[in-house]
Design brief:
Blueprint (H helix, E strand, L loop, with lengths): L18 H11 L5 H15 L1 E2 L8 H7 L1 E2 L1 H14 L4 E9 H4 L6 H4 L5 E11 L2 E5 L5 H7 L26 E8 L3 H4 L8 H16 L7 H15 L1 H12 L5
Parallel strand pairs: 1-2
Antiparallel strand pairs: 3-4, 3-6, 4-5
Length: 252
């Protein structure tokens, strides 16, 4: 581990001196008695006010706050920024996971082939009560409520500030798990190899569709049928272009 003070530093992407972040810290801090209460309140704010998406993680914390949407990396980075401005030691956990299995049954067949074999998942770690504690604000409440009944990885995470609140991943799907990491700017500066172009755009349309779909399904295959109908109706050009690019993309 680096110097403990490194977990309070501002970085290019963890830009907590931004006015919006300062104002949000002041708002969240109202009524909080101590660091734990603030950390818990900040976790819930990020979890549910920043909607989950994939790809495009090259965003500063201030940009994620403005856009109100972000990847696991973006959401964790924003939470770290809020905590560091509040002078609470915070950093990152960086996992290497089996990409297609990491998303669970929610990864519908038409999109699964575009997911890399190995993916990176980022979460937040906070130093409270003399120890590092994991908490993962990635999945917003709405997507959890409408998908977790068939998808184990989107089980809604609650956090009390005393124990770990880690994503519901199967052990065999985790390749490596490093924490605490004080700075992930070098990783955030890298462009994605897989999450890009039309496939990425459709993946995020799908995530928003799954977030708002209230019709119960038996699993990913049935959800895919519903999504294809939705995509064809709402985004016909994307629908047909995606069919074309899918023909040249072999199954993994």
């Amino acid at each position: 581990m680096e110097n403990i003070e490194d977990f309070l530093k501002e970085t290019k992407f963890c830009d907590f001196s931004d006015k919006g972040i300062k104002n949000l810290v002041a708002k969240i801090d109202e009524g909080c008695k101590d660091d734990r209460e603030f950390a818990v309140a900040a976790f819930y704010w990020v979890r549910d006010n920043i909607l989950y998406s994939v790809g495009n993680w090259q965003r500063k914390a201030s940009e994620t706050l403005t856009e109100k949407i972000g990847t696991c990396t973006n959401k964790s980075n924003l939470l770290v920024a809020l905590l560091r401005y509040r002078k609470i030691l915070a950093g990152y956990g960086v996992m290497k996971v089996h990409g297609q299995r990491y998303f669970g049954p929610i990864a519908i067949p038409m999109l699964r082939k575009f997911i890399g074999n190995i993916s990176t998942h980022t979460y937040t770690v906070i130093f409270l009560n003399g120890k590092w504690i994991k908490c993962d604000p990635s999945d917003d409440k709405k997507i959890c409520e409408n998908t977790s009944y068939f998808n184990h990885t989107t089980k809604l995470l609650d956090w009390n500030g005393y124990e770990d609140a880690a994503l519901n991943l199967k052990k065999e799907d985790i390749i490596d798990d490093k924490f605490p990491v004080e700075n992930i700017d070098p990783w955030m500066e890298k462009k994605s190899k897989n999450a890009k172009g039309l496939a990425l755009k459709i993946a995020n349309i799908y995530i928003d569709f799954a977030r708002n779909n209230t019709k119960k399904v038996s699993g990913a295959e049935e959800l895919e049928v519903l999504f294809k109908k939705y995509l064809r109706k709402k985004y016909p050009v994307y629908f047909y272009l995606f069919k074309i690019i899918s023909l040249g993309k072999p199954e993994k």
